[in-house]
Design a protein that fits this description.
The protein has 16 helices and 16 strands. By secondary structure, the chain is α+β, with helices and mostly antiparallel strands. The chain has a 5-stranded mixed β-sheet with strand order 2-9-8-4-5, with no helix packed on it. A 5-stranded mixed β-sheet has the order 11-10-15-14-12. A hairpin with a 4-residue loop joins strand 4 and strand 5. It starts with a helix and ends with a helix.
């Protein structure tokens, strides 16, 4: 018996090892897209095999692509099977008999990825009962309904009703900075590439109401944000408990007092961005709601005008008795700039344009990280594409040149990386995968602005990296791919019997800074940043989920879904 068990274990180890040598997008490819496969063992030739019949449908040669890849240490052989256009389910086989995970080729290959990645926001809804009809095993009673108490730093007393919105990440906190940023990113994708965002049947309570489910879900978050705006137009930074909840606490059992903290200009500017966007986007479907969004945006901008310096001084920091996510930022100038762009687009008043033109050169236009703390690139690309009749031709030419330089830089990066990602050592930090996709989106938008097919292919290729064409041969999206992230750090997993997670969540990804004890135990002393990842609920620094990470995944999936 022991011998049989040992043989079984050995066979499984060998099978995993074989799969680990051939990295491919485990979800699949659109027929007319580029299709690459990466071998981390020497390989001279390969075959593409139809899954059901085991029939070889394509054969080709590999090339030595990169020696000693700086992010993984791998020597990588690459092969191109872009000429295979026939829809079907396939796997790659090397001349040594090693096999890849399976993948599909068809026109609707990203449809389910869009539906599920968007529906994760429904799964993260706070303050409402999630019915089994829509949420399945993640159904639960309404949570966090009690009124929240003002923290003393607000200079207010009493309570405020702030139910609703989305749980931010693996915790149950709700944060204006990240919530508004997440919606703003998704609105940007929606306006740039609207075709793939129009479905009204992803399976949420609002499905079938004649409004894209995408907008219904965004509205759920916006309705909560209204509650966080004070009478003077400023936004309270967040509402959370004093400390993070225990990991196995179900949302409806979380009854500790919720605390509202101080107003900040970063939260207010992010709110102005998203409300100005919503005022335009919802006009077609609900003018009353659109006007409510516009009114809220105007109040927020007035607060920013009346408070030209960052509040609080030097940026937000948690009070001594609060230990949840900070979303701290010592510079609100980029958030104000994006707000100015969206206010100008919505209200057409020159004062917003003048603010942008006066202040644009004070910020880092294309920083090394594009995320909630550094949003200037979103301001720039929206200004260039949509701010018509804005004047100052010289400024616009300068911004276009900076955008083009960024795209050139990203194109070179993916050409120098072993798995053609946009990340380099130093970029594999907390939330590295959303940084990669954010870089990719700015590159993708640039591909259309500059009519550059190389940029487009490089940008689209980032979804391949996320879905398995990487050094770990891992799909970092739950439920998508044969070797997908599964044991994530998210408290809603406590709703299931075996710590399961809903499909469609993007995890944070490799984190070379090793910012949790599980990563430090496993990877201390390693110098392979692209491999510093654990599919474990204990690794919150690499395997947590977060709404801003899924926001850019939804954008990518929506864009690709629209290409069909």
């Amino acid at each position: 018996m022991k011998k049989s068990i040992s043989i079984f274990v050995l066979i499984n180890i060998l099978a995993v090892s074989a799969f680990a040598q051939i990295a491919v997008n485990q979800v699949g490819y659109l027929p007319n897209s580029q299709k690459f496969v990466y071998f981390s063992n020497p390989a001279k030739s390969f075959s593409v095999v139809e899954k059901n019949s085991d029939k070889v449908v394509f054969q080709g040669k590999t090339e030595l692509w990169k020696s000693d890849d700086p992010s993984t240490g791998h020597t990588i052989y690459k092969a191109d099977f872009s000429e295979l256009l026939t829809p079907g389910n396939y796997y790659i086989k090397s001349e040594k008999g090693e096999k890849s995970y399976t993948f599909a080729i068809n026109n609707s290959v990203f449809n389910e990825l869009y539906n599920k990645s968007l529906k994760t926001f429904y799964i993260q809804r706070c303050g409402i009962k999630l019915d089994e009809k829509y949420a399945g095993k993640f159904a639960h009673k309404a949570c966090h309904l009690n009124k929240a108490h003002y923290h003393s730093d607000t200079k207010k007393t009493g309570t405020r009703e702030v139910s609703g919105g989305w749980h931010d990440a693996g915790d149950y906190g709700r944060y204006i900075v990240n919530g508004a940023y997440s919606v703003a990113v998704m609105f940007s994708g929606y306006e740039f590439f609207p075709d793939g965002f129009q479905s009204d049947d992803i399976g949420i309570p609002e499905s079938g109401n004649g409004i894209p489910d995408f907008l219904d879900e965004m509205r759920y978050e916006l309705e909560w944000m209204f509650k966080m705006q004070d009478d003077d137009g400023g936004l309270f930074h967040k509402v959370t408990e004093p400390a993070f909840q225990t990991l196995d606490l179900k949302p409806e059992n979380d009854e500790k007092p919720q605390i509202i903290v101080i107003k900040t200009t970063t939260a207010t500017a992010d709110f102005a961005v998203v409300m100005a966007q919503a005022g335009r986007i919802f006009k077609k479907y609900d003018k009353k709601f659109a006007n409510k969004c516009k009114k809220a945006a105007l109040k927020a901008w007035k607060y920013l005008e009346e408070n030209p310096n960052i509040i609080p001084e030097n940026g937000f920091k948690n009070p001594k008795d609060i230990h949840t996510g900070q979303y701290d930022d010592r510079d609100d100038r980029d958030e104000r700039l994006w707000a100015a762009v969206e206010m100008y687009r919505t209200f057409k008043k020159n004062k917003y344009n003048e603010y942008f033109k006066t202040n644009i050169k004070e910020v880092n236009l294309f920083p090394n990280e594009i995320a909630w703390r550094d949003v200037a690139p979103f301001a720039i690309i929206n200004y260039i594409k949509y701010a018509k009749n804005s004047g100052n031709r010289e400024l616009k030419q300068f911004l276009i040149a900076e955008w083009k330089n960024f795209c050139d830089k990203m194109f070179l990066r993916q050409n120098n990386d072993g798995y053609q990602a946009l990340l380099i050592p130093g970029d594999y930090r907390w939330g590295s995968l959303q940084i990669n996709l954010n870089f990719g989106f700015i590159l993708l938008a640039g591909a259309y602005e500059f009519e550059n097919n190389n940029f487009k292919n490089a940008a689209i290729g980032q979804i391949n990296f996320i879905l398995g064409a990487n050094g770990l041969n891992k799909s970092f999206v739950t439920g998508f791919g044969e070797n997908a992230a599964s044991k994530v750090h998210n408290r809603i997993c406590s709703l299931t019997n075996n710590w399961e997670i809903y499909p469609g969540f993007l995890v944070g990804g490799p984190n070379e800074n090793l910012e949790d004890s599980a990563l430090r135990k496993k990877f201390s002393g390693h110098n392979t940043p692209g491999l510093c990842y654990l599919d474990s609920r204990d690794s919150y620094a690499s395997n947590e989920t977060c709404i801003n990470w899924n926001a850019i995944l939804v954008v990518y999936a929506g864009y690709l879904n629209g290409l069909k």
